[in-house]
Amino acid sequence: MDSKIDKAWVLMDLGRLEGAREMLGEVLAGDPENALALAVMAEVALRMREPERALEYSATALRLMPDSTFVWRIRALAEGQVASGTEDPVLVRECRGRALDAAQRAVDLDPDDVDNLRILAATQRHSDPDAALRTLARALEIDPDNVRLHVLRGAVLRLNLPRNLRDPSSLANAEKAFHRALELEPENIEALFELGRIDLMRGDNEAAKDRFRLVARLDTSAAGAVREMLEWIAEEEQRLAQAEFEAVAEAEAWSHLRAAAQPPPGPFAAYEPANRPRSWWVKLVAGLIGLVILNVVIAGTSDTAPRRTPTRTAVPTYLPAPSFRRFPATLEPPFRDWPSNFPRPTYRTPPPSARTPPPTTPGPAVPPG
Q: Which of 20, 209, 274, 295 has a CA 20 to 30 Å removed from the CA of 162?
């Protein structure tokens, strides 16, 4: 291997991507057909978020070494970056399909390579999360202490919670996978960041903010993502506080309206005696007095009131006697015949072509792609 390619690898691992690109450019200037330099240049472009250039370098490298699983993995990841950077659904579907084909090609070339299985699971998680989990289970059998595998498994479980409603323990399993990754690597940035997302899903904003701040302290390159999450949490808390304030204000307004809608008290409401319990003998005396007064009133009105004699009113003779027509024994009123100048209606069975086609039974609903 060329010493300049070794130096480019070191620079790339240190994060000095521009230096690695310049070093590889010198190698390719002297040997444009250097397959290894082309492959490493593809990875540098991938890390610099330039997926189109990564696809160009990887295509040239595959022309020189078509069985390189490393280059097929780079190509799968580059197609995934193109898909994540566009909003065109057709382009997203095409790129994810090509990424899946490239990752599957790498696995076919070396089925026991853990990196090949990991990239395949990463490309499967959007279209078939169950297949991604099966691929990760196979990879974990080969390397159970691989931190990247545990982080990816947790991400698949968390990102596909709506599609895994049949398994209510998906969130707990995702959290368990991230904690396992932290046991193997206590300062793993991805696991900490994903656990902060889970805290947000559970409504624990304070724990989420603590995890995000820890991520920013451990890796300054993640400061932008952490800032976005903290700003989102602040906006969400402000929105919830505003909604709660409006709900309280609306409840108070309704209480004032209900109080204003109550009828005013009667004119004697201020003079009504208190509702005090009375003893039984007071009630008895009041009842007897009422009975005596009622008897006196009845006796006085029965002796003095004149009696009215009922009078019979004669039926006037100028009104004709009522006649009651009875319907036939069938209990159906007689129907009026149609006029002679109006054709009688005919009811005929419509021809088969005019009949309404029978309703068709809908087939099973096809879930959206």
A: 209
DSSP state of 263: P
- Angstrom distances, CA of residue 231 to CA of 15, 147, 159: 28, 29, 21
For the chain, the farthest-separated pair of C-alpha atoms sits apart, in whole angstroms, at 141
Q: What number of CA atoms fall less than 13 Å from residue 369's CA on the CB side?
A: 4
**213-224 residue pLDDT tens:** 999 999 888 888
Q: 260-291 pLDDT, tens per residue?
A: 666 555 544 444 454 555 566 666 667 778 77
Give start and end residues of each alpha helix (H) in 14-68: 17-30, 35-47, 51-64
CA atoms of 36 and 28, how far apart (whole Å)? 10
- How far are the Cα atoms of 21, 33, 44, 49, 332 from residue 37, in angstroms, in the given order? 10, 9, 10, 18, 103
Task: Give the pair of three-digit tokens for residue 289.
Answer: 């007095």
Contact residues for 229 (Cβ-Cβ < 8 A; gap 6+):
196, 200, 208, 212
